What we know:
The structure is a homodimer. By secondary structure, chain A is an alpha/beta fold. Chain A is about 45% helix and about 20% strand.
Amino acid sequence: MQKRATIKDIAKALDISVSTVSRGLRDHPDISKDMCQLIKDKAKELNYHPNHIAAGLRKRSSKIIALIIPEISMFFFPSVIKGVEEVARENGYQLLVLQSNDDLEHEKRNIQMCLDHSVEGILISLSNKTSNIDHLINLPASGIPVVFFDKSIENSPFDEVVIDDEDVAFQAVKNLVHEGCKNIAIILGNENLLITKRRERGARLALVNANVEATFVYAESFNKAQIALADYLSSHHPDGMFLMSDELMAAASQPLSGKGCLVVGISDGMIPEIVNFPLKYFYHSGFEIGKLAASKLVHRILMSTEGGQNTPAERIILDVKMHSLH
Amino acid sequence: MQKRATIKDIAKALDISVSTVSRGLRDHPDISKDMCQLIKDKAKELNYHPNHIAAGLRKRSSKIIALIIPEISMFFFPSVIKGVEEVARENGYQLLVLQSNDDLEHEKRNIQMCLDHSVEGILISLSNKTSNIDHLINLPASGIPVVFFDKSIENSPFDEVVIDDEDVAFQAVKNLVHEGCKNIAIILGNENLLITKRRERGARLALVNANVEATFVYAESFNKAQIALADYLSSHHPDGMFLMSDELMAAASQPLSGKGCLVVGISDGMIPEIVNFPLKYFYHSGFEIGKLAASKLVHRILMSTEGGQNTPAERIILDVKMHSLH
DNA sequence: ATCGTTTGCGCAATCGTTTGCGGTTAAAAA
DNA sequence: TTTTTAACCGCAAACGATTGCGCAAACGAT
C-alpha cells in the first residue's frame, strides 16, 4: 500500500510550492481561481486527504471534542452521546468519549488526557464526587471551552445545558397530590448530586404546598434501587411514587408490578415503554441535551478562535413536557 | 494562563539539548541514570505533559482507537462502549466513537475520518447495508488493524469477536421445544445482517430437529418491533417465543404482558430485569465483547509496531451461559 | 603510551501543514 | 514611458517531539 498523498506530493506533481497548495486547497485569496482548481483537481486525483495531526500541531487544534461522563450505562447517556456525535460530526469534529467512573481523580486524569490530545472543547457531566472544579477552572484560559450538562455544580463560570430540575420535580409531585395520593414515595438518586438536591427540593416544595407527607428513598444505582425498592415496598404501600430517573424507573419495574400505585417520573422516553406499570413522565431528552450542549460548545470554540469577545456563561434550560403512557 | 511546558522548556532550564530530554524522559540507555532523574524532576516541576499530537506526527501514531457502530441506542452498544473504553484507557489509548447510522456511505466516511485522524486501530460493528468491505480491506496494509465484533461478514480477513450465533439460537429454541411449546414465534432483527441469518439458521435447525412449526417475524427497530409484535399477538397465540436481542425483548415487554407465553432470548442482562414477563436468556455480554475486541485490537497494534509477524485472523467466540429470571 | 570501546550527549533532519514576509510579474494609473 | 498597486506565488520558519548519526570524554586493554 502506498503512503497517503501529502500536499508535498501534489506540489511536486504540479511543480509548485507547498504553500501554494496549502492555500489553494482552502481558497486563500492570494491564489488564483485557476490555480485553485488545478490544485483541487490534482488533490482529488491523488486521493489527497489532509492530515489533521500535522495541521493540528501547527494550528494547535485537533478537530476533536471530548465528552466526559460518569459512567456509560443504558440510561440517559446513550442518547446524549448520540446527540453529541451528530452535532460534532456535522461540524467536522470527532468525539472522544471518556468515563470518570464517578471518581474525582479519574475525572482529573481525563481532563489531562484531553489536554494531551489537544481537544478543542469539553462536554462534561460531573462525577458525584466532584464538589469543586479547580481542575476545570482554567481550561478556558488555555483556550478550551467547557460546557456542563445534566450534572453540574452551583455558581460555575461555565455554560450549562440542563432542565429546570426543581420545577420538573415540583410539577411531577404536584401531579401526584392532585391525583389524590396521600402516601407518596419519592425515589431519588445519589444524594451528593446537585441534580438530586434540586429535584428533591422541588418535590418537597410540592409536598409542603399540599401538606402531604412522603417517604424519601435514595439509591445511587440500578441494583441498589432494585433492592431498596423491593425492601421498601415489602413494608409500605404507597399510592403514589415519584421516580427521578430512568434508572430508578427501570429498577422499579418489577418491584412495583401489580401494586396499583400511581407513578410519575422523569425519563428519556424509552423505559416507560418497557416497564410494567402505567405512568406519566416528564420527557427529559438526552438526545436534545446532547445536541444543545454540543452546539453550544462548537459555538464557543468558534468564538474563541474567531476572537469574538467572550459572552458570559449561559444557562440553557430545556423545557420539559409531560407525557403519559398506557 | 501560561502555555504548557514542552521539552524545550525542560532543555532550556537544564541547559541541555532537547534530544537528551526526549530520551531521558523515556529512559533511553544512552542517557545516564542521574541525567534521567534530573530531567524527570524538572519535568514534574514544570508540570510537563507530552503533546501527543506532536509525537503522533513524528511517530505517525495517535494513541487513539476508533469504535464504529451502526447506531447508539440503549441496547447492547452502551456496554460495548464501556468495555472498550476501559481497555483502551488501561492501555493508554483514547476512544473515538463514530456512528454509521446503518449507512454504507456514512461508514466509508467514518473510515476516512479515522485515517485523517491517524487512529491506530478500528473496532467496527458493520452497518446492515454493508455487504462488501472494500473500504476496509486495505487498512491493515496501511498499518491500521481492524477488529470486527457483533456484526461481521463472512470470510473476512479480520479478527472478530462474536458469539456462536447459530448455536445459541439453536439452544434457545431447543429449550422452547423441550418445554413442550408447539406454537412458537421466532422474532428476528434486520434480515440483511449476518447475525440475523445465523441466528435464524440455528432456530430453524432446532425446529426441524423437533419437527415443530413456527412463525418468523422480522423487525429491525424497537418501534417496528413493538408494532409488529402487537399486530402478531392480536391474531396469534404462541406458547413460546424466541427473541434474538434486547431491543426486541424490550419491544415485546408490553405486547407480551400477561400472555403467559414461554420466552427465551439473547440478552446483555439488563432488559430481562425490567421486562414484564418471566424468561430465560442467553447472556450475551456487550461489556465482555467490548473488552475482548479492544484487547485484541491493542494486541494487533502492538504486534504491528513491534514488527512481529502477522498471525492469521482469529475468530474469538464468547461462550454464552443461560440464565433464568423470575 | 596507544588504540579500541563504551558511555553520554548534541546536531540537525524529519513528520505534514500553516503562515508571515518578501519577491516577481503584469495590469492600471500617471 | 514610468510609477503605483494589485494579484500571485515561493521561501523558510514555525508547531513539539523523535531519532539517525556524529563526536567527545572516559575507560579498559595491550
